[in-house]
Amino acid sequence: MERQQTPRHQSAWRVVLQVVAVGGLFVVAVWLGGVAEESSLVREAVSQFGYVGILIVSVASGFNLAFPVPVVAFLPLFLGSGFNFWTTLVVVTLGMTLGDSLGFLVGAAGRRVVEAGRRNDERILAWFEMAHKKFPRGAYVLLFLYAAFVPAPNELIVIPMSFAGYRFRFMIPIVLVGNFLFNTLSALGILGAVRLF
Predict the structure, then answer these.
(1) pLDDT tens, 108-128?
(2) CA dihedral sign, ordered 61, 17, 107, 147
(3) 131-151 burial by CB neighbour count: b if 16+ within 10 A, else e?
(4) How far is the C-alpha of 110 from the C-alpha of 125, rounded, in Å?
(5) How many CB atoms lie within 10 A of CB 188?
(6) Which among 144, 139, 152, 142 is positioned nearest to 181, based on CA atoms?
(7) pLDDT digit string (tens) for 53-99?
(8) Could you tell me the pLDDT band of residue 12, with boundaries at 50, 70 and 90?
(9) Sign of the dihedral defined by the CA atoms of residues 17, 189, 184, 165, in that order
(10) Measuring CA to CA, how many Å separate 139 from each of 29, 36, 133?
């Protein structure tokens, strides 16, 4: 008789697979950085798209819920292709924040949809409004900590906050600073790890 896996076991396997995937991605990024340093063809290919290409990839990375890979993981490739560390970090941060802005728009649109069908979804909207009234500033602190230290898509918190009625003009500067801190810490960690090899 075959044993079926419980949701708890499936969840554990999912986490293990994600850790292996991120580790594999790190190894590939370090390898690509080494290839870029040795291969003029790879350097030229990456350089052809320049900072605009890095920005576009960063926006996609910033608004990717399916397989969120921080584009800063490819820092060795960008540096090996001749890009400046700090300029690349700023471009990546801006791109991720633009992606988070798209997430905010998704949350705002979701709120409008629920408001339009309010009779059916009144409880959902009421719960979000209550959370916004009870913890107006606490959510901003949580947003900063999440953006700065959690290696998961910011949309997981940006979309619900937008849905709850938090303001774009207050959220996005917090996300921008959090993304910059996250990217800086990640980049310095990646560069430190590369030096070990």
Answers:
(1) 777 776 666 655 556 666 776
(2) negative
(3) beeeeeeebbeebbebbbeee
(4) 10
(5) 13
(6) 144
(7) 888 888 877 776 655 677 887 888 888 888 999 999 999 999 989 98
(8) low
(9) positive
(10) 34, 42, 11
Residue with token string 């107006």: 136
Q: For 176, how many CA atoms within 13 A lie in the half-sphere containing its CB? A: 11
SS3 of residue 43 by DSSP? helix
Q: What's the rounded Cα separation, in Å, for the pair 90 and 107?
A: 26
Q: How confident is residue 174, by pLDDT bands cut at 50, 70 and 90?
A: very high
Helices 40-62 and 85-116: angle between axes, nearest 10 degrees: 30
Q: Is the pTM of this model over 0.85?
A: no
